[in-house]
Amino acid sequence: MSCDSCKSLCWNWSVAYRGGMSGSGTPSTHDHQHAHERHHEHEHEHEHGHGHGHRRTMQRHCEVAVIGGSAAGLAAGLQLARQRRSVVVVDDVTPRNAPAEHMHGYLGREGASPAELVAIGREEVRSYGGEVLTGRVLGARRLEDGSFRLDLSGGHTLVARRVVAATGVTDELPEIEGLAEQWGRGVVHCPFCHGYEVRDQRLVMIVAQPLGLHAAPVWRHLSDRLTVVLHTDLGPDVERDSIAPLEAEVLAADAVLVGSRFRARAHVLADLGVEPTDHPSGAGDFVQVDPMTGETAVPGVYAAGNLTDPSLQVLPAAAHGSRVGAMVAFSLASEDLRTAARDSVRTSGQRHDWEQRYAGEDRMWSANPNGTLVQEVAGLTPGRALDVGAGEGADALWLAEQGWRTTATDISQNALDHVAAEAVRRGLDVTCLQADAVVAGAFGDEPYDLVSLQYGSFHRSPDRTGVRNLLGAVAPGGTLLVVAHDLAPMREPVDVAEQTRMFDPDAYVGVEEIAVAVKDDDAWEVEVLETRPRPPGAASSHHVDDVVLRARRLA
Predict the structure, then answer these.
(1) Count H helices, E strands: the chain?
(2) Which CATH architecture is the domain 174-259 placed in?
(3) Closest listed residue to residue 370, CA positions, set 392, 352, 348
(4) Which among 307, 273, 271, 272 has a CA at the least distance from the CA of 289?
(5) How far apart are CA 117 and CA 100, in angstroms?
(6) Could you read off the pLDDT of 516-546 as tens digits, one per residue?
(7) Which residues of the chain have pLDDT under 50?
(8) Domain limits of the chain?
(9) Which CATH superfamily is domain 357-553 in?
């Protein structure tokens, strides 16, 4: 039976048929978002005011910024991280399929929840050193050097060589009261996403646009108890003789089927010149891209997933993101090859981020050595010391003053230049070694009596190269001292409209991972592993607790 209109619907709930909602995830209205030195401390200083007044803002640099952290965005990020590109995914946690409890048609993940897929995807991206920041991109513009600056909530910025937008679309529902509340559960739109689950049930299909009839034959195959309701006049394409008047004011339904309109979530790209295009179906708009590369009409700006094709389910959306990530990797590699003649030293994206931070003359941290280092080293006989992630060198300089033959190592040459200048000023002998902790053999072949990692961090890798480098640098009988922040505050929820987390601790090797490696090796003895109050004297006084690991290499 089909009809022109009805006044109310009933599918386990009573729903008045008189108003409209629209949605993405949760439907909305039609109104239309290495040894890395002292990273933790810097991030906490920016992110947690704790009554200290004005929050300082932060700028970071990466090779690729991905806007949106669902299937397409994470797949692009994974592809790029595996190409040793520095990639930062910014996710405001508003996926299109947020209301759905399960996803279907995803080979190998059939029936999994969307949240489970995202959690696994995030972990995979992080396992290669890619970062996933919880926050929101507010806008973007091109800089004079051809790179892009993304403005983030909280006043922070992210500068990238390439941008991948995987922001998806917003679904707009007919103005019928109750649809939005049941969207993704009692109200569905895709026979391939939800059809099997509502097979043989009482289905009411509300058609508010010509495209809404497109799926009717598929739904009819899934259930012979299908009622199609025309919510509006669909024009001459619908034969009026085939429409029967509805005699009842209430229809009983186990599920309601609605074909939504869709709007590309591309407003953050507007200042770059990326504008949505009307979809050929007439049901909404999308961002048009090169079918091979995923690049938009603006060079260097790419788009993936539902933003480019609203019909994609999760699996093909992820596949498209993976393809676009590969195309971006080709683009960057080609550009690097073209510029190799004038750039004698290739700088990794991770290193570039830190070189920018230490490019100025102003000191980023206090000039004081870390109190825990002073306390734990007090009883040790001075020998050869390696300060990993030395930053501006307060710890390395202090160790040299205590008689240690000290090597300061950092991913940033700018930071080490500060260390060297201060060592000369004080008349101290400190060796400076520029090295990325996740590169094999980063610290050389000569072992050290003390290896210190103070509030430092380096990106993760599946083969744990960074951890092996760290442990391998300790001489037999030597000491490994790792001091890190208690990161519990970094995992607290954040209002993405107000703030963006500018550091992803789970993309970096933590003290827990180092402790596990030491415990699993009979050549080591753990002497201290505890959480304790942080000693005074740090630049960021809001920080409360440290996690301290001290271990001795037996052989």
Answers:
(1) 13, 27
(2) 3-Layer(bba) Sandwich (3.50)
(3) 392
(4) 307
(5) 12
(6) 999 999 999 999 999 998 876 544 445 578 9
(7) 1-53, 538-541
(8) 57-169+263-338, 174-259, 357-553
(9) Vaccinia Virus protein VP39 (3.40.50.150)
